[in-house]
Structures are given as C-alpha cells and as structure tokens.
Amino acid sequence: MEQEMDEQPLTNRVQMWQKRADDHKEKQLINPFSDWEGASHRQKLSKDDENYGRPVSGSQTEFRGKQAGEQSSREVISLCYVIYDLGKHQEDGSYNITFGELFETFLMISNNLVGTLLRARKYKFVEFEGEMLYQGRDEEKVITLRTLPERP
C-alpha cells in the first residue's frame, strides 16, 4: 500500500510534464518560425479572418497589449486636462495653448508628448496644424482642445 502512494504522485507528475511537452510541440507546429520537423503543416493565415493580426486570445501578448492601450488612453486624458487647465478659454468653448508652452509643462508628466498629441487628434480631442510638431520649429503653433474626455 505504501508503494502505491509513492507511485501515484510520480504518475501525476509524469502526466503533467507530458502534457506540457505535448502543448509545447503543438505550439511549435503552428509557429511560423519553428524549425521543428512537421512544422510545414502550419495553419494558413487569411486576411479575412477576424483574428488576423491579433494576439492569441488569453495570451500574455494580448494582456500586455490591453495594458498598453489603457496606459495610452490615460496619457491622452491627462494631456487633455493639462490643456484644459493651462489653455486660454475661447468663446466657442475650446481651449488653446501653444506647442512650446505645452511642451515645457507636459515634459514633466510624460516624455512622449508628440505621440500622445497624435493619438488625441486621432480621437478628435485636439486639433493642430501640420502632421507632426517639432520642438524649436513649431513652438508657436496653436493646439486646440475641442472635446474634454471623461476621466475614468
């Protein structure tokens, strides 16, 4: 009876490691960069597939992507509130601030102001002239806050 108790946990551990090995092999067979024998039977990707270009559901990559998206959204909201607090209120309800003034202030909050401005413009929170703003050259360009997003 004592021998049966010792064998049971070992059997469970062997099964657990075999399952891990089988899962790893299955992932390698569909990995487009795998050198494993038999990997030529890879899953064909179609641009019409709704999951094309997206990470595997439930994966760490999906989790990190969602975290990055949430962080970017927080930075856009923060930027909009900085413009709201420091900008000059206009008669139409918008707020204006120059890029130079915003750059000096926002640099203390984040080091990626231009990318955050581009994202805020994508969602129509802000407007500014030109495709990209550069420190030094565009100091006097006006950034207009059109819509103030809700804080989470």
UniProtKB/TrEMBL annotation:
Short name of any one Pfam family annotated for the protein: Costars
Region described as Disordered: 1-73
InterPro entries on file: Abra, Costars_dom, Costars_sf
Start and end residues of each Costars domain: 70-146
Gene Ontology biological process: positive regulation of Rho protein signal transduction; positive regulation of transcription by RNA polymerase II
The organism's place on the tree of life at top rank: Eukaryota
TM region positions: none
GO molecular function, one term: actin binding
Cellular component terms (Gene Ontology): sarcomere
Basic and acidic residues biased stretches: 19-28
Identification of the protein by name: Costars domain-containing protein
